[in-house]
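Re: weekly structure request thread

Next one in the queue (196 aa):
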Amino acid sequence: TIQNSMFRRFMTTNHFEIRLKAEALDPMAWLESANRLIASAEKLEDYFEEFWNTLKTEKILDDSKVSILFMIYSYAIENLLKAIIVIRDKQNLSSQNWGKLPNSLQGHNLYQLCKKSGLDNLAREYESILKKLSRSAEWYGRYPTPIKASDYNNLRSSENESNGISLSGHTPIDLNEIKKIINELKSNLYNYLQRI
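Done, posted below.
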């Protein structure tokens, strides 16, 4: 039909690349996405409390709901970090080809994204929880099994801890640390936004 051919002509690959670039370079879009994820995660926080109450009486725990909570929070933190990256590196990002997201805006490794954001102190202070959250984003909160067999190994090297980091096991302070990270990231993001 005439309407379909007009639509196809309008919706060219170039149109999609322009849209991708415009949306990806908008720090407010990343912030809005993070806020939606945070609102969703907050509705699941009761599972974290339930998990700790169960720990007092059970020997075998099901942390699947906690891993989903962590996954959602990790995506929120990822969006906040990517908003900061967009602001800090907008000139370089603007000059790139936009057939897909640039490498600096891909991935779920929150520790590395923190460093790319210039937040080395935050990365250092919260390395353990950032790596736990990344694990939930990459597979533990999404799939019944990791993508690679080696990901069953829950020990990771650390730039800050001589004994490395265990990605398994949650602690009662995890949720507080997640909220501190989010607050610090939002504070940094708002400071950047006031300057542009």
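The radius of gyration is 19 Å. DSSP finds ten helices and two strands in the chain.
Next request, please.
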